[in-house]
Amino acid sequence: MWNDQSVVGGGFFNSTNQFGAANTPNQAQKTGRRTSRTAPIVIRQALHSGDGDVTIWGTEIMIVCIVARVRNIRMQSTKITYTIQDITGRMRAVFWLDQEAMEEDDKSTPKVQVNDYVQIYGNVKTNKGKKVLMAFKIMPVTDVNAITFHYLQCINNKLKMEANSKKEKVEVNPTSAMLPANSMVGMNDNSSVNGLNPRQMMVFNLIRASTLEQGISKQDMFVTLKDRMSQMEFENILEWMCGEGHIYSTIDEEHFRATDAF
Amino acid sequence: MGDHDDFEDNQYPDNDEFVPYVTAGNLAQKNGAKVCLWGKVTKVSASEGFYVKTVDEQEILIRLKRPLSEALEGWYEIYGVSQGKSIVCDEYVPFSDDMAKNIDTEGHKSLAKLLLALDEPWNLGEHLSNMNGVTPME
């Protein structure tokens, strides 16, 4: 049904395995407005975020990745506080120390010195009005290109999420501006009373036309549609219509019926 | 919870100052502004500072406020104020040879160009323009 898009290809658990690589795993981002598990950000974005997680153009980011230079390190018994700086600003990152691991060896203490570049994964938290990065993984940067790459990725992300959020707004607006979706008024093929655009109407009409109890399958629909739209657009439309309540899946995720069908 | 001793870094307080990467090509545009430059040391001048070759293959003078006390070699990240054709250096940070061995100069050049061209590359979206995290230090 609603495939868990926020975990496609990435997500927290997958990214743990990739900690060996210097690059950031950002495959978790899909369409905007989903909770994105990890994303690269810059310090300025962390500082400007509201209460709770960082949100970029509607996409909440739970785990962030920051590439920055260490300006200052302060060791305490329970934690290490780093002051990190990138080209957009400066903030603190706190790395909590695990007592047990410390006793064995200080393998748990990151091998980081002042003026080193590091890659930090963590959560942005607010503490007494100030933003702090609660770090759970700190790795030294081993290639300067990772720094360039990180900034380019951040820019790309922001632009992608901005575009996504604007696209969603345009699609959703007709629905709210028009009559409620369940209205029985003029159910003609070409009306936009339901708030569906012509592309969505194409798919919807196919589903509506099915007289089978289990509805029509994705495969059958796509046979008709494949010349006119891409697989991805088709899937997106189906998903959106499910979310809006125009269609529902029946015997499995491949078969759909329309809620307005008679 | 327990630890009330929040480390407020007085020497390096939080800020959201944007110091963009530049290349020799756009240094002039940023005259008077704080910039950050990557360069490989070509020669050292006792009186002025040192010269670096940038990612766009030009030589730029880095003026130092204090005379050099160490040998300089390899790639550095230089922070300072642009003076059009040179930079007055606030600080410089070395990149180890290992880190910089495959440095992608084209990529970095593009990044610098992008940063100059984009208005607000880091803005978070229309609903969140408040600066919650950045409050003046007491």
Report on the structure:
Chain B: Keywords: Nucleus. Chain B: InterPro entries: NA-bd_OB-fold, Rfa2. Chain B: This is Replication protein A3. Chain B: Belongs to the replication factor A protein 3 family. Helix content of chain A is 33%, strand content 27%. With 262 residues, chain A is of the alpha+beta class. In chain A, helix 5 packs across helix 7. The longest helix of chain A has 34 residues, at 144-177. Chain A is elongated, with a radius of gyration of 24 Å. With 138 residues, chain B is of the alpha/beta class. In chain B, 15% of the residues lie in helices and 30% in strands. Chain B has helices spanning 24-27, 97-100, 105-117; strands spanning 21-22, 34-45, 49-54, 59-63, 75-82, 86-94. A 5-stranded mixed beta barrel of chain B has the order 2-3-4-6-5. The relative contact order of chain B is 0.20. The mean pLDDT of chain B is 85. At the A-B interface, helix 2, strand 2, strand 3, strand 4 and strand 5 of A face helix 2 and helix 3 of B.
